[in-house]
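Q: Okay, next protein. This is galactosylceramidase from Streptomyces spinoverrucosus. I've checked the sequence twice, so it should be correct. Can you predict the 3D structure?
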Amino acid sequence: MSLAAATTLALTAGVIAAPAAHTADDPVEVVVNGDDVRADNVNGLTYKGLGVLSCNSTSNLLMDYKAEHPARYWQLIRTLFGGKNPLINHVKIEMGSDTNTSTGSDPATMRTADELADASRSPGFQLAADAKTVNPRLKVSILRWVMPQWVQTEWNKGTGTDEMYKWYKETILDAYEKYGYMVDYVNPDTNETRNPDISFVKWYKNALVNDTDFADPRYGLTPRQQKAAAKAYHDIRITASDENTTKNIGPALLTDAELFGMVDAVGYHYTTDDRLDGTPDSATYRPYTKLATGDNVYGQDKEVWYSEGVGSFGWTDYRVNNTEGPGGASTGIGGVQSALDLANRSVKSYANSKRTHYIFQPALGSFYEGAQYSHKELVSARDPWSGQLHYDAAVYVMQHFTQFAKTGWENDTNTAGIWRTVPEASYSGVSGTENVDGSNGAPSYMTLADPAKKDFSTIAVNDSDQSKTYRIKAENMNLGGDPTMEVWETRAADAGQAYDANFKHLAAQIRPDGDGYYVYTVKPRSIVTFTTLDRSHDKATRQRLPESGNRTVLDTDASGKKHNTRDKILYADDFGYEEEGKVRVGTGNGTRKVSLPYLASRGNQPRYMVDQTGAWEVGKDASGDNVLYQYMDQSMKETGAWNRNTPNTTVGDFRWENYKATVDVSFPDPDGGLAALGVRQQKGMAISDAAYNVRIGPNGAWTFYEYGKAVSAGTVAASDTYRLAIEAKGATITTYIDGEAVSTYQDPTPQTEGRVKLGSDFHKVAFDNLKVEKIDGYTPYASAQLDSMDSSIAYEGTWSRRASLGDAMDWYRSTSTSTTAGASFTVPFTGTGIDVIGGNDGSAVLDVYIDGKLMVKDAKTATTDKRLATYALRGLPEGKHTARFVLKSGKIVLDAFNAISGDVDGTVDTTPIRTALDEIGSPARDDYTPDSWALFAPAFSAAKAAVSGQKGLDTIGVEQITDRLDKAYDGLVRKAGSAR
């Protein structure tokens, strides 16, 4: 009996059979029977492919990519959404409320009941519009989590149905008016509810189908548009209920005929399993399977979605170097939360609960790292000024599902030819329900078939260290005269190969044996697609993903647009954007693109800013000039936000180090206000997550903070306007108000790098003339970062290199850790210094070698939070170097390494080094022991080179060179018998 047949019997008996362990000697037998291809099931078993969720700032920087690097942006659109076999078929939009329920805030389309809806503020609506230019069949859906206060206030009274409907409807029609598409699905309920609001779902559906008002001038529709809009609007489908931790909507549909008739798709989050309560004939036993298959009291099938799930955690480029496999081996592209984990989630969620659509939250990470839930996406897009985009290997892995089938939604006449999933030829025995683990070697496979039975594809995932042999047989299929099967494979590189050498390539072409079985052994830690399609010469299938490009540091001229490393400006924004040209935007339901003025194209959202909380938007001041406003005032603040912070937004480059940030602030709200400026922000989502920040109100009272701790305070003359500035150079932080220094703070354990933050309280506050400037004599930024898992870094000794279940505050969710004396790590870099970054307890003691020579002996490390430097080395000649660190004692946790730029403006005072050299004089090598001289000699040479005009030397480098020279001289040991 085949494994699939045995599993079917087990499921009927109420037990999900999951084999405990398998070896290469246990072949997996899969029978693809044409009689099991249910061409009449047009909703539940049609394979819809993949979707992307846009919400909570996850897509914010995409609009900057489009403006600054349009070629790269539109290439991204084609890569994800285009072609005959699109990777992504659906853009799901969680409507914003200017509040933060995960990584940031998306703008509310309507901040008050009277405001006209503006969908262009939300990058999700525009992403969908642009995606439709390459895939007109793309689906768009919306739902809510937190609602604007004007809706929330009425909703809390139990009378807010009309307000909720108005918010939905006017947003939907505004997107229709601007972009020409009608939303396909609406979930009227709240995101991740535990108790579906069935009464409101029914109320909303009735309101939707019975609405005849499309002529209201608020909608902006011409008479011709009104008729088309009405028809499309009435065709909107209903989804429910996006639950997380509960699965109540499934049984509700099976026991409520009215609800069943109203809801078109059901979805739930972050688990692969169905519900298994009660007896097999009860509504609580496998309700989602019953909905999808149509094996229910109504005899009708429904769409079942994995309506929110994760992307690949970290970057596969790095995690392949983990030591989490048996005996400290790598798990390759597999392991928990890996690319293969994603594949297994898709397979298991279908096998166990018949979900035929997986929606990534997010597929695109286009917000600054350091916010909650960083590094769990297919594509990273975080440097719009550089145009750098990182396509993870998980894209290739998920293409194994979408490129070897016709995916999407079947049409009303059932003639679109969308491939069906085949339950009898699909199974998963891997462990886990969300973060799934395939290391038990259990089979995990899913079969998709042409409804005409002419072709099929079986995707097999082997996320174990054992090989797995598959025996696949086709019965009652119309495969034609050539039964050749192609085998497409993705796995990590073998020794000596390029990183992507084995990504989605044709591994074999096989024919059935005498018994009619296609036999193939799937390698460990790999995914393969067995397909009867002929894709061996198909250009699109063989197409490689675009190259990532370099992460250029944000360093512009005074316009804020043009890259310029030779002036004093790091970045500037006057919010006028005269330097910006028009931007192309998809419209007409994907039929064309139009060119719009910069601000109009993006709903007046400012450049490069990622909002954590608040309504940040460019508007006109009393003089008619553009300024940045934070609009969320006392009338808008009482929402049900998850991450409740005062309004703040972030801008800039995480590698910025020594700089002065300046901004003009004013208080147009007669009821008050507070303005804040912060520098060196690496992580977090509040103004207090900027390492150093100053806050001031119109009464002139100001306070300077280190993170959220008040350090100093004072009062200046009350005013409606101030110019705030913070200068951060090394450990010295100086605050200015209207050009006068009001506070200087010497931080004994400084945070040295990070972005700029702007903040306010819940009043309308204005910001203008943001400027970030370099400081003479100081290095402005780190020029590059290497992750601790990068393949260029060499490790010796005992190390734990962890990628699974990593912390979002660790770069790429990975760390390398050792407690073994003598363990070492060697890092190649280009620059004048290097930072060793990681959350550490300060116990590690290191010997530091530069270019083969011992430079620092018994170097102490600092107690540091994540993303901060536990050890920093400065003062090297600008150029290529190799740093080797040897752990002498303690524990070291490595996250990343920053290479320090040699771009230093102004004159650097080398007097401290000259003074030290004068005091030392000219010691004779023969007077000292070889070991002590070996440490002194390079410090002595470095000091002499520095005073001779060393390129790239900055003030901190001077301090460190002097300190190393003094310590090395003090450590000289005279030979026995020699006099001082």
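A: Here is a summary of the prediction. The first strand starts at residue 28 and ends at 33. The two ends are 91 Å apart (CA to CA).
Q: Noted. On to the next one.
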